Amino acid sequence: MLLAITQGNLLPLSPSPLPFPRQASSFRAWGCSARRRSPAPFPICAASEYPTPSAPPRRLTRGFSSSSSSPPPQPDHILPDEEEMEEADIGMWIGEGNGEGRGQKKKHLSELSSWGIGGPCRYFLEASSPSQLISAVRYCRARSVPFLIVGKGSNCLFDDRGFDGCVILNRLNSTERTGPGAYRVGSGYPFNRLGVECSRDGYSGLEFAGGVPGTVGGAAFMNAGANGQETSDCIESVQISTTQGWVRVLDRDDLTFGYRRSCFQEMEDLAAILAVTFRLTPSVSALEQQRRFLERRRKSQPLGEKSAGSVFRNPHDSEMSAGQLIEKAGLKGFKLGGAKVSEVHANFFINFDGSTSRDMRGLISLVKEKVHQKFGVELHEEVRYVSYNVIERVR
What we know:
GO molecular function: FAD binding; UDP-N-acetylmuramate dehydrogenase activity
Structural class: alpha+beta
Helix content: 10-25%
Function: Cell wall formation.
Oligomer: single chain
Mean pLDDT: 79
EC number: 1.3.1.98
Pathway: Cell wall biogenesis; peptidoglycan biosynthesis
Protein name: UDP-N-acetylmuramate dehydrogenase
Strand order of the largest sheet: 1-4-6-3-2
């Protein structure tokens, strides 16, 4: 999943999103509960609302902070495997020197997309530690290079021309049990794997995640959910990095979530989600519940096909789901170029025959138009468009 967008002056963004739909969770500004309440406009998490630290930004050390109530202490030293990379090292990663590393030029984004669509990016980096990721962001900002951070690429539609900037692949795969039912997980960790591990350990809250593609950071960013569960239901805290290189830990009361929405989508200074801490509840039936969810998914979704999961959010102004509306509009199995509406689940669009980004985006637009004409319902995408030099914000 796409985790961050930056360089707003170089990457124009679409207007701010509409208020939450009626079935979304709603929250007071900077204080929220997972309980359902009456709707409220979506608050914007401005940089000015963060606690202002009295100490300068720190470099990351091994592990994660545990509190956002006060600035983190300055470490006595930087552990060897967490040392911040020098700019020259990153330069060699992306081809400015003769060194070898995990970076390259002109990597095709189709390799990072679950749709298998996308042209080459100008630069490509892999970051396997928080300090590497932060250093890569600083490097790009210092040179006004547009960048984006991706995980599994399971909700992105990349441009056929690629991306005129640096793509940073999130490989923050750390996991730690910090107590009974408490899991501190790197943002690049596969979300479905986490769901399976938690259920096997006998904890409930992430049973739905067993079949959800993407990463932990992407799930928090989009507030992924299924079968009556949402990621936000069991989030205790989230560690983030800002575009200025600060590291902050936001507790649950600092965060707002709704149906496929989170305050991270509106943070102008967000560079990346680094880690998420979950608090789960003991359950003897969690694993069996997950097995039922997975069996239902196998029967109702086109697993094994090149898709990005659900293309549209379920609308708040219709009793039918997005998939039902598309099917009732007679579009199940409809094809445009190499893209088609799945015959198994109408809210899944498939790259069945070398689809281009233009094919897929055209199909999405056509389906939106037909559903609106027939039912008067406007569908809103869950997927995000990453054009050659524009990243569109979630609406």
